[in-house]
Amino acid sequence: MNTNERPQVEPAVEIIDTELIKSLREALQAAINMLDKVNKKPQKPFERLRQAYKDVSPSLRSFLTADFCVFHNVTPGTFRKKRRGENPVTEREIQFVQQWQYL
Question: Which end of the chain is least crowded, N or C, by CB within 10 Å?
Fold first, then answer.
């Protein structure tokens, strides 16, 4: 063997698929974003009501509004004012909107 030649050594670690790493990072980031959304609850009740309302599909919001008004005996205008923070919001009303799609 010539002293100038280097012996052939196989790498100890296999090369990892970069596409797999990229998709795993994206999935992890999506999970982190979802957890951040769950953990960051707005402080004010009307903000929680507004966020719960926004979480409902736009095509179902009219049904939510109608059910809310019947259940709480208010008008659609009053419900709109509650979402804007002009009228006080109770915890029961917030929970109704948050759980409405599961009823």
Answer: N
Neighbours of 89 (CB within 10 A): 20
User: Which of 56, 103, 33, 102 lies closest to 83 in space, CA to CA?
Assistant: 56
Tell me which residue has tokens 């004012």.
Answer: 81
Q: What is the pLDDT of residues 23-54, one digit of tens each?
A: 888 888 887 777 776 666 557 899 999 999 99
Quickly list H helices, 1-103: 18-39, 45-55, 61-72, 76-84, 91-99
| pTM for the predicted model, two decimal places | 0.58
Main-chain dihedrals φ then ψ at residue 11, nearest 5 degrees: -65, 145
Place of tokens 């599909």: 57
